[in-house]
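user: can you give me the structure for this one chain? tokens are fine.
assistant: on it. calling the predictor now.
[tool input]
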Amino acid sequence: MTGKTLYPRLEPLLAQIQKPIQYVGGELNSRVKPWDDVAVHWALMYPDAYEVGLPNQGLMILYEVLNERPDALAERTYAVWPDLAALMREHGVPQFTVDGHRAVRDFDLLGVSFATELGYTNLLEALDLAGVPLHAVDRDESSPVVVAGGHAAFNPEPVADFVDCAVLGDGEQVVGDITDVVKAWKAQGRPGGRVELLARLARVEGVYVPRFYAVSYGPDGAIAAVQRTRDDVPARVAKRTVMDLDEWPYPKTPIVPLAESVHERMSVEIFRGCTRGCRFCQAGMITRPVRERTITGIGSMVEQGLKATGYEEVGLLSLSSADHSEIGQLAKELADRYEGTNTSLSLPSTRVDAFNVTLANELSRNGRRSGLTFAPEGGSERIRRVINKTVSKEDLVRTVTTAYANGWQQVKLYFMCGLPTETDEDVLEIADLAVEVIRAGREASGRKDIRCTVSIGGFVPKPHTPFQWAGQASADTIDHRLRVLRQAINADRRVGRSIGLRYHDGKPGVIEGLLSRGDRRVGRVIERVWRDGGKFDGWSEHFSYERWTTAAAEELAPFGVDLDWFTTRERTEHEVLPWDHLDSGLDKEWLWEDWQEALSEEEVADCRWTPCYDCGVCPTMGTEIQIGPTGRSLLPLTVVGR
């Protein structure tokens, strides 16, 4: 019987593992709908541990959107830790959902949201545990349709062998379209089998079905062409864009985890998209145009979410939240509304040029005053011009000093290492900056106990950005620069002891680079790594660089390419890139021009406040920038029946 709960078989295993609470379900605001009451069944997966996956906004939104439909249900599944996976294989318990503990293989669709490419091996592990054939070509009508989504889906070619289709762009509307297609196909008696269903899905805007596109390669190892194999599917697949976010106020009732998770707060996405033009930022490029929620829309989401969850912190999320056209008014009116309730507001990070003390004070007025996070990204002004994130050293020191002078004791600065054209000197300027921040902060605050944490991430070139052509810095280069940076910070212990340095070595970034710009040949590497025991590659204790490099060397050699070919090699202007047939709206010629401007250290303005500079998104996608001010304001909440 499909849809039957597996919990009686699972429960005895939970006493033998660590953190069994993450598998039991029943969280506040989770849902279990009767299986036979609906036509279409979705399993939604975040391919990482429960504690990382549960707070994911994208998955939570789709979960609610689908469960609001009377003809569909959605349940969640996460990556299973190795201790439980071993017991599941031993006792024949397949991959299950945490809501109804139903077998994933019983569902019509398995939607997998990839925020990072390092989750690919977890997808293979889940498919194997579920009893679903790893390769899409081996599946029949009895297997769920595996749908990839998330930012990594803008180049799904490395997992093209394992997914049936990929969704490009916003998911709120497209999951409804997919549900309609599957429902109709089932009601008609499944005509044409799985191939006909996939052909129908391929005609849904924003849905890419890899099996209907053939890739050929040239003698130099590069792609010669990508051609569709059917006339009834699009030659290029365009992304979906949801306009008017106020019409999609999700999640309305966020799920509250039973176990500790990475974000213990209620979050509201205050706008989507970014046009700042940071050249390294895939998220900003692929989510254009900017679409703001109104103050009143945000206010109602905050009100409903707090009632539904009991959280005392609200995260105002976006790629650059302080850029909301009414952020000052929004923060003040939310702080007024929740005065005396211990409800605090937070932003993920703040641009140096968007920060002001008034805003920061409003955000922390009713709750704890946590640290402030700024993301200069590049160590020197020169490299910040290259990446189009221009802020002067003086501006940064002045901003951080102002924060210290107004009572903040902890500031975090985020940078990247390995950016195009970067030298050791660019990275060493991070140390100079941190030292100056501490000295100026001590002077402004009159205190010695202030702290500055410098967090460094290795740069990975991403598709659909001006840096998609760039050669990636090698792991040795990254590690060398981090080593000299640490030495420079520690050179003066009187200041260095107030500076924390957090970083990862360069090796995981190289593998992320392989997966982010890889083509279908990389799928063999992913499968080999998984078969050799690779999983949870985003966790340092599980990641094995040697396992990846060995697999890459052996699996790519027959094609005449290698790991360096996919990572450290700089691409040429007219090379066919693996994702060229997937349309994010960005004009490839414009991206190339921006890459050349980066090499010339030229800046590009934000088109929210300046004339259009022809990136291509709005005319290509039929969209437009949506920003305030709206002239609206939040009314005080009234207590009924008092």
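assistant: here you go. Residues 424-445 form the longest helix (22 residues). The first strand starts at residue 40 and ends at 46.
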